Amino acid sequence: MIKADLVRAVKDVVDLPQNKAAEVVETIFDTLKEALLRGERIELRGFGVFLVKERKRGVGRNPRTGQPVPIPPGKTVRFKPGKALRELG
User: Fold this and answer.
1) What beta strand segments (E) does the chain contain?
2) pTM value?
3) How far is CA 35 from the centre of its chain?
């Protein structure tokens, strides 16, 4: 599924014009992105939780040369599926 599929689903369910449905989907995504950038936890009941986790600094290896490569610390987004979603699969 891609963003266009979500826009089409919103358009069909809510009976909105295509451009308004696209605006709704884009607003939802923008709001989620902004919350993640602030480090907030996003919980969507029945679907799952998005978390921002700290990634430790470390040392990896270049697979071609075997040379050590430093891995800088950073942040990453993790998804934990909710109970209802886990039971589907």
Assistant:
1) 42-44, 48-55, 58-61, 68-71, 74-81
2) 0.77
3) 11
